[in-house]
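Notes to self, Transporter permease:
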Amino acid sequence: MNRLNLFMIIRGLRRSRSTFIINLAGLSIGIASTLLIYLWVQNELSVNRFFKDAGRIYQVMEQVHNTNKTVTQEYTPDLLAATISKEMPEIERATAVMPASQIPWNFSVSTQGMQQRVFKIKGQFADSNFFRVFSYPLLAGSADNALKNEESVAVSETMAVKLFGTTQHVIGKTLNWSLSNFKGMVTIAAIFKDLPNTAAEQFDICFTHKLFMSPRLFNRTISWDNQAPYTYLVLKKGSNIQAFNKKIEGYLKTKLSYMKTTLFVRPFTDAYLYNNYEEGVLTGGRIEYVRLFSIIGGFILLIACINFINLTTAKASLRLKEIGVKKTLGAARKALVLQGLAESLLLSFFAYLLALLLMFLFLPGFNEVTGKQLSLRPDIPFLVGSVTIILITGLLSGIYPALYLSGFKPVAILKGKLQFSAGEIMARKGLVIFQFFLSAVFLLGVQVLYQQIRYVQHRNLGFNKDQVFYFTIDGPLSNNKEAFMAELKKIKGVKNAGPVVQSFLLPGQGHTTGLDWAGKNPNTSIRFTNIGIGYGAMEAMGLQLIMGRAYSEAYPTDSNAIIFNETAVKAMGLHDPVGKIVQLWGQPRTIVGVVKDFHYASLHDKIEPAFLKIETNEANTVMVGITNGSEQATLAHIKKLYASFAPGYTFDYRFLNDDFQAQYQNEQRISVLSKYMAALAVLISCLGLFALSSFTVERRKKEIGVRKVLGATEPGIIGLLSKDFLGLVLIAVLIALPVAWLAAQKWLGTFYYKITLNPLVFAGVAFLVLLIAFIAVSGQCIRAAAANPVKSLRTE
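result:
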């Protein structure tokens, strides 16, 4: 009986080839899209969850309460990890980490001896507990001794092979390193396996936190009010997190009574997805995009299922006699329902096989768009996800048609006296409306994404990002910086050049509240961004002065000067600020200029008070402004000059525009993904509309012939046939417009600087949806209108 049912199902699918092909195409595209999104979502949700104690690792966060705003930050005092772990019994282990993502320069690392090789790599600093808190697998060395001494270092498997050609017998070998103008020698104490792509922080070398705090490195003052590293804790099993947060909230005030900073912990596994805070309140993060695309994947699959439901129910008349005969011969409704579900599940399985082929073809491009390294692996999560999607698709597609077709009375079927209720017709129309409602929302969302990203890319940032690049002075070059800068400025094509502590657009800018001025309210605490620069940097960046002057070596006292941005001057309430004295960390500084506001942070954030001060020794990232059109020749000359000053070192540079674009990498990737997903949603919807219009035209063939004989024109017939479908699409678009508008407003709310929504753009997208729908149905309508009525009426 099962073999017979299978044979009948396959025969039925073959008999309705056009419907089968359209359903197969729609379902396979829907399943492929959903599975790709599933792989991406699964990867996002698994970031940082591979550690042994992942569920007990927490990150300490700071709430900095200033007069102008409350800032949530990850930086903590250098002394926090070592001290709090001794004073809080809930803590099992703690570690301080200065992650690679917050270090603006790459490390230069080289071996010793005749075959010296220099590599520039991403690195971090961490204390001796790092590998005991984070269970990265070690190929050599132990977690207890990997970072025990100031001169110890751990390197990745790949880095060990690059440096020595092997991972064997590497422990105990020495490396030369440099970072900006700091350098030294370290001994390899451990080799860790290459980090998986689900590790949020990627690094190839790990130095000790003792080295980071060493006075000979950054000349830093180690104190409770100097924040730099991230602090991570492993809490004991059964710890009450709410109670612990309450306990540590005022911890810093016990160390420094004037501190206005409070502490709390968040799960380490949440840090990647939940990372946006506004005024001290968690407002989301990447999880919003994960949710968005999970919903999009589900809706695309739903659109494909709606095609199946509509086509199956619309063609019910072709299968009613078969069902009537079966019911007359004693077939129970349950058996007919199961047969219908078996048919849809079989089609879903065929679609899944085709979807795997589509995934194999498009996965490389999908990885390029998302920046991931996803692969088709038959592991348990993927198999479970695949089976779930097949079952959901088959059952969702087949349950309504199976119940619908099996519900007819056999007597009415065989006498040909069936009447289709208005509710059934409205249900079918409602599904079409829902399809195009989703398609229209997707297209409108893509347009808003595109416009906002375009706005961001073309907004005046207050400095020149297009013809400015930067590179780091390190190695031998750091000992001869002045001579190098003098030669650099002589190169043809170099307009201006000057050092900064780091690129404005890289993370890690310092902040301070340690600024006082005449007339300041003693209860006021304003957070200033501290930007360190060298002479010539303002000109290289193209910063615009609105009063006063820029820094110049012609003024020896500029080392004690300061320049503010417009926002800072307004926040301080200063009028005619040039020449006035302020106190920075207790030291007097003279205001020599005010620059026009510039975006040193993302356009998600409002420009905050900031100042620029001269830091000649620490400014080792060189900003170079070059003449438009001379990029290649100028870079070639600079590379040659760099090699003459630092032989063996690679000349690595980045344009500021690349850094600027990287700030909106998530939005750009989401925009591209949304564009493809919207196109697929429209394609699947149009496939269903095309099939429905074809079937409708076929059923009304004789009616069309009669109308033509009675004098109906071809345009009139085309309008008659298409108006029903286009009317449904129009209703869908009218519903989609306000929904998309509200969703766009909510997303744009994540940007402080954003576009104003234009109703004309929404109207244009609505017209485009109607045009696409008309194209989908017009072919069949035009063909039917142009057909010879004699052929359709010859049997009458």
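- The first strand starts at residue 57 and ends at 65.
- The CA atoms of residues 457 and 661 lie 8 Å apart.
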